């Protein structure tokens, strides 16, 4: 039995013999050697004839096989993809991406007039009978063949008094084909624009017709408009022009940047700005006036209300009487610090108290509002938000002296709608024509305020965090019968 056998006992000589034996890792393969003790080196072929390399490593070959087996399987859902369905569904994902019918721009496609002529006129009339007047007129104007089949009776039906809404709906659909005209809603017809590309908002006492219309001065059928501030109105025609310019091109209207204005009236200074977001026109109006401290209630009314119509001087929606808008403004006026009496013992007492507390009284310091008038308020019945502030502003009425005074600032943000019709929910709500609008549950502003959207479009820094509360938390609708607003 050899010494390497596991059954052989290790002796003293065997221990030294194994210790002095060279390790296998130190054995070198010598050229020309006929024998070796390492069986792995003996089984290795000659260097002159290397073994054939495989096409892919085993791991890479496994990966390629896995890709071939799961090439059409969605990794997220585990479903097998059908590229034919994906290609055909591209035109159905979003109609605004410009995907139209396959042969829409094909000049060599066969016209569909032959297919239309295959159906008898009675069948086309039966199809139009199921449609409303606006859809039936749109069907009749689609092609000359359909017009010959249906005739002009559907256009004449739009002139009926009961079909006024359907006529407006039909005229709005052809708005893109009339860049030099503007839809007049009192007349329900298009008029030629007289100030094409030069339309500007002007004060109410300035005659500023955008087109020649017989109902322009008809008090019984006035054009739709919204009151921005005292003596400043916003006709719906300007909302049309801005939104048409965004949807169809510059020649259809004016840009939103040209709508902004600055003006002064009755001691108030105003500035307006407009912005288009998600297909709707947003408006911001900032109203500011200087206010003296410790105003009695009668002076507060003279400062806030106009003597002409008893509306606030600042911009407000149609629901300003219902709720806490005017009480919040009066509360903010009460926070303006008043100068102290410096004569006699009263002045000495104030000086001693200020010196004892280590502070200095400054009547022009920053004013902090309370928890009632500080939060931003949203009207629950229309898309309008208000923010009331008291700021230290420079009075430039007298150029010989530079003086800073406390001023009340009321900022209003509102949504004017998409500009297609004055019957859209936003325009009707801010003018008090609808009572089915819920601003706190509306999908556009349920999670984000109008002020945040507007300010984020112009400034990198958003507004400071404001608590948005309801303008009318008790939901009381008293209107002029209530006395809290005055």
Give a brief rundown of this model.
This protein is α+β, with helices and mostly antiparallel strands and 486 residues long.
How would you portray this structure in words?
- A hairpin with a 5-residue loop joins strand 8 (376-378) and strand 9 (384-395).
- The chain has 17 helices and 11 strands.
- Among the domains are: 113-173, no CATH class; 260-338 and 363-481, no CATH class.
- It has a 7-stranded mixed sheet, sandwiched between helices. The protein has a two-stranded antiparallel ribbon with strand order 1-2.
- With 486 residues, the protein is α+β, with helices and mostly antiparallel strands.
- The protein is 28% helix and 15% strand.
- Helix 8 packs parallel to helix 11.
- Residues 21-33 have a biased composition (Basic residues).
- Residues 1-55 are annotated as: Disordered.
- Fraction in beta strands: 15-25%
Order of strands in the sheet with most strands: 5-6-7-10-9-8-11
Strand tally, please? Answer: 11
Order of helices and strands: HHHHHHHHHHHEEEEHEEEHHHEEEHHE
Q: What summary fits the major beta sheet? A: 7 strands, mixed
